Amino acid sequence: MGPSSFAAVGRFMVLDPHARSRLEQASDVLGYDLLQRFYDAEEDYSVYTQLAFVVNSLALADRAEQSLGERPEICAGPSFGQKAAAAYVGALSFPDVIRMTAQLAELELDYFRTEYTDVVTHTVTRVPGDALAEYLATLTDRGEFHDLSGRLDDGMLMLSVREGLLDELKAAVGAMGGYSMYTMRPPVHARAFGRLRLRAELEVLDRYDVRAPRQTLLSDTDGSVVRTAEDMRAMLLDTFDRPVQWPAVVDGLLGLGVNRLVFAGPDNLFRRLGVTTRAFEVIALDPKGVARELFVPAS
């Protein structure tokens, strides 16, 4: 989930009938006007931004089915997308996914107020593996905190570090011939966050009846097939303290004979990665593109 502001997706949420339907259901569940709360939100990863991401991803999946006739047999939801995927494959009802998303977002905010308060997750690309490993080893020798949060493509990683180390990391990556991309706060998917995982399980996930997926679903941490209700619970919890491994998901999809991917959601990353475009025909349904099709200016 990259930054997904109201300015970027609000027009879609107002114009698209699938989005309006999902938004109405979500607002009923939450007991407040989600669109208004999202409009007023200032943080990139606020509770309301995360809820809007789920609403929009599922609304676009609805559009893919009903307007394009795309009814996939196999599903994956990398990173934050696994929440929408949980509803799509029937492991949780849409109302429960909305409630769970809001509760987990509040829990994360509470956790990072006191734990790892100065840690961010930074994405780098075109980084030589040997050179990066050597640099990270020097950080270990110095006692500097660092953790892998995601492997997205060859030479493209998500790294969690102390914010005070960020300028040094960017300079080191540049010296290797790589590039720095975006920085996320709060941080995500790092093995150091095991206590957050435990709290998420005990304080949130245990409230819900998580079922086995009705469709083939791949885990975003290793590309394995999620078969049982317990597998599904594990995947939802793994997101807190296990790095995303998108190349493993690609391998898993290829192993199941997939040759075409439909991306339904505000994604500007996974659908464009070389590991994705080399392996699949890619169809992208995103809020901006759909909103352009729906918008008819007054004559």
What would you say this structure looks like, in words?
The structure is a single chain. With 299 residues, the chain is α/β, with parallel strands linked by helices. The protein has two domains: 6-113 and 191-294, Malonyl-Coenzyme A Acyl Carrier Protein, domain 2 (3-Layer(aba) Sandwich), CATH 3.40.366; 119-184, Alpha-Beta Plaits. Helices cover 51% and strands 16% of the residues. It has 13 helices and ten strands. Strand 3 and strand 4 (156-162) form a beta hairpin. The longest helix has 22 residues, at 47-68. The two termini are 37 Å apart.
Summary tags:
globular, Malonyl-Coenzyme A Acyl Carrier Protein, domain 2, 299 residues, Alpha-Beta Plaits, 2 domains, alpha/beta, 51% helix
Summarize the structure.
The chain folds into two domains: 212 residues, Malonyl-Coenzyme A Acyl Carrier Protein, domain 2 (3-Layer(aba) Sandwich); 66 residues, Alpha-Beta Plaits. Helix content is 51%, strand content 16%.
- Overall form: globular
What about the largest sheet?
Answer: 5 strands, mixed
Number of strands: 10
Specify the CATH class of the largest domain.
Alpha Beta
What is the CATH fold-level name of the largest domain?
Malonyl-Coenzyme A Acyl Carrier Protein, domain 2
The helix-and-strand class reads: alpha/beta
Helix content: 40-55%
Task: Tell me the strand order in the biggest sheet.
Answer: 5-2-4-3-8
Write down the domain tally.
Answer: 2
CATH architectural group of the largest domain: 3-Layer(aba) Sandwich
CATH superfamily grouping of the largest domain: Malonyl-Coenzyme A Acyl Carrier Protein, domain 2
Low-confidence stretches: none
Work out the radius of gyration.
Answer: 19 Å
Amino- and carboxy-terminal Cα gap: 37 Å
Average pLDDT, rounded to a whole number, is 94
Order of helices and strands: HHHHEHHEHEEHEHEEHEHEHEH
Number of helices: 13
Strand content: 15-25%
